[in-house]
Amino acid sequence: LFPFLEKHLITGPPKVMWGKHDEIRELLKNSFEALESPISTAEEMKSIVQLILAPTVEMLDGMIMKEEEILFPMAMDTLTDEEWYKVYQETPEFGYCLFDPEDEWQPSGAKVEKQEYVTADAIRLSSGAFNLAELEALFLHLPIDITFVDKNDKVRFFSHSPNRVFERNRSVIGRDVRMCHPPGSVHIVEQILADFKSGKENKAVFWMSNFKGRFIYIEYSAVRGKEGEYLGVVEVTQDITQMRKLEGDQRLLSYEHK
Questions:
Q1: Dihedral in degrees, nearest 10, Cα atoms 222, 228, 232, 234
Q2: Domains of the chain: total
Q3: What is the dihedral of CA 119, 125, 128, 130, to 10 degrees?
Q4: Which pTM does this prediction carry?
Q5: pLDDT at residue 151 above 90?
Q6: Which of 67, 93, 119 is the last residue of a domain?
Q7: How far is CA 185 from the centre of its chain?
Q8: Are 219 and 203 in contact (CB under 8 A)?
């Protein structure tokens, strides 16, 4: 809902409510943690209710009031039927609250057009689009290495980031994937391909704990079309050496303290 309001230059209420949403999430988290902790006396329970649960319920009630008395009336007065239909179409991607509607809805007489945010030369995908320079840069900066092998077992693509774990050169394009592995492991590659094609498996995971001093995680995933048909396999490789050292939390707001 918020993106549609923003298109009408209504930004204040959504920003305020987004902040309140974050506060409520934190309160709910604290409430669950408090209720899951050992409670031995009635006084402890009373303290939890007064200090944690009651403020959480009060905040939730306040949010519902703001939605019903401010946000929703504002949205009803602002959005067109076409925009409401787009909200309706996109809602299943996030899920409904409390119930799933059984009947489909489309506003009568509303002309529903597909929203376009892209230029004519864009590479269009189901959830967005890139121009060629953006797509090249995206693969260049991803913190993972990607190699795609098509349904005929031919290497079709690899990302060429400067810090690839396993080096690739363009001569590999069109090569049978079996020829990209040492003879001693080809039978394993063939087994993975056979299992993916038959549908027996969809993923194969491996790791190396000391590859040139780095911990390397490798994941092969079957790529399937909308009808479940086998389209190929994607290999994703990542250096997770530093990730294995992480502790605690570092959230988005931590950035301002760097």
A1: -40
A2: 2
A3: -50
A4: 0.61
A5: yes
A6: 93
A7: 33
A8: yes
